[in-house]
Amino acid sequence: MEDIDFTRHARLCPTLKLGDHTITVTNVKRLDQDRTVYRLEIQPVDGLPSTVIVKQQKERWSDEFEKKGACYEKLKDLQGDKIPLFFGQGYFDGIRALVFSKVVGTILLDLARSEKPVDEIKMKEHLAVVFQVLAAREALYWDQKLDNFFYCDDGTLDASKVMVIDLEQVEFPTKFYSWQPSVNKEGPRALMEDLRRARRQYHETCWKYESDRGSEESPRTIDSNVIPLSMDSRSVEAWPHIAA
Fold first, then answer.
1. Which of 29, 97, 105, 175 could form a disulfide with 92 if both were Cys (CB 3.0 to 4.6 A apart)?
2. Structure confidence by residue, pLDDT tens digits, 192-204
3. Are 116 and 228 in contact (CB under 8 A)?
């Protein structure tokens, strides 16, 4: 999807309203064809970065919209570390929207589609940390999909971590049943299985494609001790497929 530079098309320029601010948007990119999630470049405003992620409310999804904002408030101490920063509710292009910081990293679904190896043990540890901090706050994270988790490394292994987005399906039970702790506890294992499966399916498809083309190259082998990693276009700068 192409970016739209609204500085060249002023009459099309949408605005972002947040609190008392009406903010001029200079560039927009839709991050997900199936969801109203956008990366916005905005003119300078105190307290906001130059790029933010917005997620507009879907029709008839008012309860989920409110719940998501409330979850970010409850998990405020995790913002900027394990979840994106939440700047509040506003309006983008006249539609209610939640505003987040961008996440600089690679979506786990994309990790399976690259060549850079990553230690599986380390990755599982990063995932475990995310679920542990959620469990410590009595939050159950149900939406355990690869595209809701980002691998962030700042260019160094020592600084690597995993961040999670999209809190619509987070619950804070007032009463815990005996089986509920397993929701978070099994998350790292289940996600690693999904990651390996996605990697295997993707690379098998690539190998078949090369074979159909009559490629003389021998098939690549995948070390069972590593998983592939990448920083491609979906590394989004945020959310992106955000936060949201």
1. 97
2. 999 999 988 887 7
3. yes
Q: What are phi and psi of 101, to 5 degrees?
A: -80, 160
Give the predicted TM-score (pTM) of the model. 0.77
Query: What is the C-alpha to C-alpha distance for residues 240 and 30, in angstroms, rounded to an integer?
Result: 9
Q: What does DSSP assign to residue 147?
A: G
* Tens digits of residue pLDDT in 102-139: 999 999 999 878 877 768 999 999 999 999 999 999 99
Q: What is the pLDDT of residue 156?
A: 63
Sign of the four-CA dihedral 50, 29, 14, 239: negative
| Domain 106-235, CATH number (from 1.10.10, 1.10.510, 1.10.3470, 2.40.128) | 1.10.510
